[in-house]
Amino acid sequence: MKIGELARAMATNVETVRYYERIGMLAAPARTHANYRSYAPEQIARLSFIRRARTLGFTLDDIRELLALASDADQSCEAIDAMAVRHRDAINRKIADLTALRQQLDDVIDACSQGRVGHCRIVEALGPR
Amino acid sequence: MKIGELARAMATNVETVRYYERIGMLAAPARTHANYRSYAPEQIARLSFIRRARTLGFTLDDIRELLALASDADQSCEAIDAMAVRHRDAINRKIADLTALRQQLDDVIDACSQGRVGHCRIVEALGPR
DNA sequence: TATGCACCCTGTAGCAACTACGGGGTCAAG
DNA sequence: CTTGACCCCGTAGTTGCTACAGGGTGCATA
Questions:
Q1: Were both Cys, which of A33, A120, A128, B55 would link to B77 (CB 3.0–4.6 Å)?
Q2: pLDDT tens column, A67-77
């Protein structure tokens, strides 16, 4: 599988795949006669894992760790579970922060009475003190 | 006011203030005899605006635009209101994304039965297909 | 007076996770 | 045989800071 097909299949883009190779998230694949990258099923699966974990918000470092943990099938699931829980907690904090922030924005937006900038509540809300 | 006092007052740090100057968010302030930056009230107010808008999640580009709009007190408030609303919508989308993501994480965490990695639902959930 | 310490200066490089470019090679179709 | 879609490499840009390194300044204390 060439890099373009792979990228399309993973809904990512070619540069990202090459980037992952450069930083060691993916092993360098075999090359065709024309020096094109040629991906084996194993590497395709690994990229799939990486992309899915990324869309779940794991960092590349998290994913390195998850992959290391996942590579030993006999190991306990505990560490992986713990990572997922930690990550969920971080997401919960992010949601809480954004919700508070939306409330503040709602407040300034509601206060805006479509006047002149000189009396704009939004501008005032952002001003000093 | 020296840069250190300013930074403390704004709960930001010195490097950030200098960074804002470098990228043109803040004008270069006057200098003391010792070549120390010396901030006038106007610039302090501007930094306050920037920091408050940043904590509300506006990007520096957004803030540049807000500052430009806010600088003409006679102008209508409309454009500023529209920016705030656009921004709130973006935050709402972010909250929705994170909430969906938390649901997925909850699912895999609930499915995890503390077994071996070979059968870990989290690993499976991230795997190909 | 010396000296220590907190503060200030500049300039550059690093972070995460890509994205975009420039300048070229390869391959299949028409 | 040329056009277009693909591939290669290397480097630099993005956002919003943060962290040095290697120096200067200013005030209090011994």
A1: A120
A2: 888 877 667 77
